Predict the structure of GUF1 homolog, GTPase.
Amino acid sequence: FPVEDIRNFSIIAHVDHGKSTLADRLLELTGTIDKTKKNKQVLDKLQVERERGITVKAQTASLFYSFGGKQYLLNLIDTPGHVDFSYEVSRSLSACQGVLLVVDANEGIQAQTVANFFLAFEAQLSVIPVINKIDLKNADPERVGKQIEKVFDIPSEECIKISAKLGTNVDSVLQAVIERIPPPKVHRENPLKALVFDSTFDQYRGVIANIALFDGVVSKGDKIVSAHTKKAYEVNEVGILNPNEQPTHKLLGFLGLLHMEVFNQRLEQEYNASVILTTPTVPYKAVLSSAKLIKEYKEKEITIINPAQFPEKSKVTEYLEPVVLGTVITPTEYTGKIMALCQARRAIQKNMTFIDENRVMLKYLFPLNEIVVDFYDSLKSLSSGYASFDYEDAGYQTAELVKMDILLNGNMVEELVTVVHREKAYTVGKSICERLKESLPRQLYEIAIQAAVGSKVIARETVKAYRKNVLAKCYGGDITRKMKLLKRQSEGKKKLRKIGNIEIPKDAFIKVLKTQ
Ligand code: GTP
């Protein structure tokens, strides 16, 4: 394909605004998938994604489309929609020259619409606004067009109004892709330069990388080198996605609860693996206090990924925590409650804009650890689901941090070690102990659950002993029966994590983390 006949684009949207439905229509319209086969949402291939109805992992397809007597190759790069996955969005965008920004004609601009728009804008991509679901009874495409003009400074006439569900006007979307998005700039005569924006592993074929080509060409038999790791590979096969390739994962640490649950579910479903989850943590930093320590760590500032390696106060001049710039869009009636929630999360208000008569956009600087676990869920519940949220990186700020251990009968539970803000240590510690008490089954002996900062215990709960002994029934009796009972008991234990002699069911961790 001549480079000038290629377009690389993504669809970005707030959750549920219709990205996958539009992608399906585009695939149908270009004959990439068969309409009659009811291939609902081919791009959402993974089982979890189907079950939860959300896109988690970027998928890609190549479409052929004839327009004005010419055939074009349109590479559609799918992006995840949920707030927890914005890293994967930016990576996919770096392979594109333009985006379709899909906005629901009834809900209008939401927080992720804003965040996704700015990711595309900063990457200097052409943005084509698409107002979807115009078939809905409450659709108000005119109002949404005005919001788009006000918030993104894109003339409302540029909006394409469609119904992805019914297929209305979807062909003008493809034409706009050709007319408004520039072809990629590839210098085929230069040495190969490509970005791997996604990769998968196939047991039989090896690593399958989805690449965006910037310079040169790549063919079967070529020897290529990773610019990052300097490792060399041989190219066995070159292809495009039209639309099938089997995906696996490579995830970035957990960015939020949904991400964590989805990841856990994927591991279990796709790999039959059972995992124990740990507290989602953010990368804190510590500035070391002495030349000796700097020499020992080979760095002045160390990043603490694992809370268990948190350096004690005497070794550091200050601790730093990551902060993010959060955007909340909400109907005005919830503004008060949302401001109170943000304040409780140590957030600092930066901006407040009315995007139309009854919607407000709030910008706050949040410590990342305050939103990573359940902020999104709280926001949704106090706004009856109407407020939306997204965030972007905003560097680091000084913070009073302490390490908190959770002990069961004096033994530390590694999975639950957390770094918390000093002010919040007591509340967080108390809540973890209470949750743990609720989710730990009673066992043969009493269990003391303690939260401790250094050697100081700041919260405690007790799980009373479970008196009934399984073996009591066969006291003095039948040995085979006794063995059977013990065997059954040990099978039940496989899904358990043992701390000292206390057994913790795996889902107890999720329960504890969810409500921290
Ligand atoms: P994520 O994958 O979670 O990011 O969602 P999405 O943006 O891909 O949304 P999806 O395509 O799954 O659509 C969400 C819901 O809106 C589904 O129930 C669709 O059937 C519905 N929907 C999509 N487009 C239209 C439309 O044009 N009209 C109407 N009435 N419903 C639509």
Remarks:
- The longest strand covers residues 316-331.
